[in-house]
Amino acid sequence: MAEAPRTSRFREPGEGSSLWISAATIALLLLAWFVVTQFGLIKPLFLPKPQTVWQTFVDYLTGSANDQPLWQHFVASILRVTVAFWLAFVTAVPVGIAMGVSRVARGVFDPPIEFYRPLPPLAYLPLIIIWFGIEEMPKVLLIYLACFAPLALAARSGMKSASSEQIHAAYSMGATYGQVIRHVILPAALPEILVGMRIAIGFGWTTLVAAEMVAAHVGLGQMVLNASNFLRTDIVIMGIFVIGIVAYLFDLFMRWVERRLVPWKGRM
């Protein structure tokens, strides 16, 4: 009996792991940083040595720096971003869902969201200070506004993800309008909502420094801003690394949640 011919599987563009490429890129960047600072090609005022930045990190981590410990800055920033993000989530997602299923809601919410969405936070920061003062409220509100728009637009876009065949099939089996939204449209919208959450948390961290410009005494953004006033480039770079790493860990966590909640994404 003749053996059945084997079919070769063609690799899709971009398929495969890029972990070792990323690791090599990071190693090369760190090596370049070490070389240009070790040989004095760039003055320490503009780019300190990696070992100096590491020592600054250790000082802040152990509380021996002439400032509040790193964990206090970290906790303050995490609380602000977390409160703002979840407030935006519980308000923006229902607004986005309403915009996706109702032309009235779309007509009401679409103009203000599309108006302020492209504005940089520093543009309306003075107005927020005038209205709400310099306590915690304006800081949380600024991050909230940064998170609100991507969450609402992602939920609105996700409401269009369900195919007409799925909707008609549900109706043909006797489902009501509310049941179609709950059991067909919302599950189809979940991948888009999760993507919106990833984008929103990134915007929240991007707005962190601007938010902590408002008379903050503690926070990662405040630490970076205060260090820049005294030309402490090592603290600035250390703070940038911490903010970036935390944001990346948030993104990894959201990817894990996405894989658990919508394992079918990309396989249909």
Structure, explained:
The structure is a single chain. By secondary structure, the chain is mainly α. It has a single domain, classed as MetI-like (MetI-like fold, Orthogonal Bundle). It contains 11 helices and no strands. Helix 10 runs antiparallel to helix 11. The radius of gyration is 24 Å and the shape is globular.
Which features does this protein show?
11 helices; 73% helix; mainly alpha; 268 residues; MetI-like fold
Low-confidence stretches: none
Say how many strands there are: 0
Write the CATH architecture name.
Orthogonal Bundle
Overall outline: globular
Which structural category do the helix and sheet elements fall into?
Answer: mainly alpha
Fold topology:
Elements: H1 19-38, H2 50-62, H3 70-101, H4 103-116, H5 121-132, H6 136-158, H7 164-172, H8 177-206, H9 208-211, H10 220-229, H11 233-261
Helix pairs in contact: 2-11, 3-4, 3-6, 3-8, 3-10, 5-6, 6-8, 7-8, 8-11, 10-11
Quick recap of the structure?
This protein is an all-alpha fold and 268 residues long. It has helices at 19-38, 50-62, 70-101, 103-116, 121-132, 136-158, 164-172, 177-206, 208-211, 220-229, 233-261. The protein has a single domain (44-261), classed as Orthogonal Bundle (MetI-like fold), CATH 1.10.3720.10.
